[in-house]
TrEMBL record:
It holds the Pfam family IspD. It is an enzyme of class 2 (transferase). GO terms for molecular function: 2-C-methyl-D-erythritol 4-phosphate cytidylyltransferase activity. The gene is ispD. This is 2-C-methyl-D-erythritol 4-phosphate cytidylyltransferase. Catalyzes the formation of 4-diphosphocytidyl-2-C-methyl-D-erythritol from CTP and 2-C-methyl-D-erythritol 4-phosphate (MEP).
């Protein structure tokens, strides 16, 4: 079964501060998106990468992919994204050729995920899981709060879920093609990951171990950490 990776990269990255769309910010002199594409193409199982670009940035993304050396065995497609991550993923799926039976969805904002994590996700789908997420235990205790009634108002704590049962999930998330397409056709509420749509269909989602280096680059401090990881890899 052939495997493709869809990379939603159409977000503005507002939390990272002012500047270019997040996926196009440099890490070690190379755009974050290029790291993410290389991380998917590093898996020998991945033969197509579909990049979902900012709608006004498809030409720029195409020329970036042309400019950076990527493995020859991997094909690339660039499509324009949408208003939400979910819409961007769906637009990427619309471009998926029929011969791909396994689909990874990977955030451009997780540029440093190791290939072993990518391969573990693919392997679990090959073994029959309709949906697979890499996940890690939490370091922090998590509280559920009642959102503030107005800015500046307090947020009372509602509950403290048992931390031992919580996991922070990462990407790439892996799917049986038909399951992911059905999930995107059926679930219309706003979600923050693809696996939750599969959960809403009532299908099982399997967890495999995530990796510290698959963290999401969201805030300025994450850029500092990502640069440090790259430097350590180059030593
Ligand atoms: O905003 P967040 O960090 O959750 O975004 C996760 C990923 O989804 C990023 O790679 C971002 O570029 C992508 N995204 C997208 N289209 C949007 C919003 C986010 O492709 N409209």
């Amino acid at each position: 079964v052939r495997t493709a990776a869809v990379i939603p990269a159409a977000g503005r990255g507002v939390r990272l501060g002012p500047g270019a769309p997040k996926a196009l910010r440099a890490l070690g002199g190379v755009p974050m998106l290029i790291h993410a594409v290389r991380a998917m193409a590093a898996s020998r199982a991945v033969s197509l990468v579909i990049v979902v670009a900012p709608p006004d940035g498809t030409a720029e993304v195409k020329s970036l992919l042309d400019a950076h050396a990527l493995p020859e065995r991997t094909d690339f497609l660039v499509v324009p994204g949408g208003e939400t991550r979910q819409e961007s993923v769906r637009l990427g799926l619309d471009a998926l050729p029929p011969e791909y039976g396994i689909v990874l969805v990977h955030d451009a904002a997780r540029p440093l995920v190791p290939v072993d994590t990518v391969d573990a996700v693919i392997e679990a789908v090959r073994e029959g899981a309709p949906a697979v997420v890499p996940a890690l235990p939490l370091a922090d205790t998590v509280k559920e709060v009642q959102p503030a009634a107005a800015p500046g108002e307090p947020e009372p704590v509602v509950a403290t879920p048992d931390r031992a049962r919580l996991r922070a999930v990462q990407t790439p998330q892996g799917f049986d093609r038909a399951t992911l397409i059905q999930a995107h056709e059926t679930v219309t509420d706003n979600v923050t990951d693809d696996a939750s749509m599969v959960e809403q269909l009532g299908l099982p989602v399997v967890v495999v171990p995530g990796h510290e280096e698959a963290f999401k680059v969201t805030r300025p401090l994450d850029l500092v950490l990502a640069e440090a990881v790259l430097t350590r890899r180059r030593l």
